[in-house]
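User: Please predict the structure of the protein below. I'd like the answer in structure-token form so I can feed it into my own downstream comparison script.

Assistant: Understood. Taking the following sequence of 228 residues as input:
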Amino acid sequence: MSVKIHYQNTHFITSAPDIRHLPEDEGIEVAFAGRSNAGKSSSLNRLTNQRNLAKTSKTPGRTQLINLFKVTEGCHIVDLPGYGFAQVPLEMKKKWQKSLGEYLQKRQSLKGLVVLMDIRHPMKDLDQQLIFWAVDSGIPVQVLLTKADKLKSGARKAQVLKIQQEAIGFGGDVNVAPFSSLKGIGVDVLRNKLDTWFAPAIAAQMTDDVIEAELVDGTESVDNDEQQ
């Protein structure tokens, strides 16, 4: 089913320290994950054409909570705590990574994972661990090689091809694309991928709407018959 989702209508719902503080585990969620300096917040803002939907910072590691955004009925985007390098106390880093791990392992509504990594420094150990976990769990992955504008066209194409070849080794459904929040590179690719992942929730909502409309029509028909 082909759907067109208006991502500019995305809005913030809640921040949670762990999955126990998130809303009901239902609908479809797509999670954004990456190292602390991968540019997750900037990518979310570009995706939705909103400057401040996700808070950006010059200090890596400021995303300390699981942030939930509603795209449309039954469809949510989740901004997960950044992993890897961050200038924060070790205990806090462990707490973030625990909440990240719990979400990935236990959240049943998670149906797609966007893994962001700097195109100049891709496929670090934690990046690969995350992708392997998703493949083992049957969750499709969209790798975004962020800050693609930092490389010239030829170098960018070569790097994307290299990572695409590496991605084959993971098995499963792993796609790779360049991305730049600044230049808009790869935004359409990301939106199309999310459209595909969210499609079942959109279809279910449309079915519910049709059933509700039929019930209303049926009730009105009965009322008219009684009046006659």
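That's the full token string. The chain is about 40% helix and 20% strand.
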